[in-house]
Amino acid sequence: MTDELGRRALLRCGAACAAAAACGKFVDEPLAIEVGAPLKNLLSVPMARLPELARPGGSVLLHVDAADVLGRRVSILVANTTSQGMRAYGAYCPHSGCEVAWDDRADSVVCPCH
What is the residue-wise DSSP string for 48-101? Predict the structure, then answer.
């Protein structure tokens, strides 16, 4: 009976590993929203109102009239990256909670608390 339990445990582990590997493909891909009809709670800002984003490396910090689960004002960092085009990020560091910024020379988000 111990052999049978060992095989069952091995099969369960194998099935869990296969499922994790299959799901991993979806986790690594960036999330994207296709442009179309406006969604509920979607922030839409005309690009003409954000001249900072006209050039690669430009960025802007948008403050939304809303609060997150921690009671902080919702802020979004939008950057015209040189490597990946237009990107939007949550403006708070997930490690320290500080408001982040865009470093156009490094082409990445930077946190003043790190």
Answer: GG-GGGSSTT-EEEEEEEEE-TTSPEEEEEEEEETTTEEEEEESB-TTT-PBPE
| Cα angle, residue 58 at apex, residues 53 and 60 outer, rounded to 5° | 70
Q: Are 79 and 100 in contact (CB under 8 A)?
A: no
Q: Report whether 75 contacts 61 (CB < 8 A).
A: yes
Question: Mapping DSSP to helix (H, G, I), strand (E, B) and coil, where does residue 22 land?
Answer: helix
Q: What is each CA distance from 109 to 20, 21, 30, 102, 104, in whole angstroms?
A: 29, 29, 16, 5, 9
Q: Is the pTM of this model over 0.85?
A: no
d(CA 46, CA 54): 12
pLDDT in tens, 52-92: 999 999 999 988 877 777 788 888 899 999 888 888 888 88
